[in-house]
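Dear U.,

Please find below the material for section 3 of the report. The protein was modelled together with copper (II) ion; I have listed the sequence and SMILES used, followed by the predicted complex structure.
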Amino acid sequence: MDAIRIIAGMKRALAAAMLLLAALACGEQPKEKPLTVPGEKLYTLKGKIVSRSATDNTLQIDHEAIPGFMEAMTMDYTVRGAKVAQLPPDGARISARLHATDNAYWITDVARVP
Ligand SMILES: [Cu+2]
């Protein structure tokens, strides 16, 4: 009789623990990609915002040459650490930090320049 009660109590405790775990897992925010990673190369990007995609959080930027990395062109850059909707408007001249690894590149610190 007592043993059955103890087992029932343990089952309830286990069920409660699993519910708590599930609640924690569901409440967790999707992991943001890091702003910087070890071994990345850093460049200064200067250019003009052409357009943006809030869905992908990208800016299309008409950028100047980036010595040692890229010639002048218009292309999309993923932004990390900010929502593109909150960045300077299309047409604004900006500078940003360009981070590059062997298989990814992104920008941070997008700021309007005169
Ligand atoms: Cu480019």
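For the text of the report, you could mention the following: The domain at 41-112 is CATH 2.40.50.320 (OB fold (Dihydrolipoamide Acetyltransferase, E2P)).

Regards,
Y.
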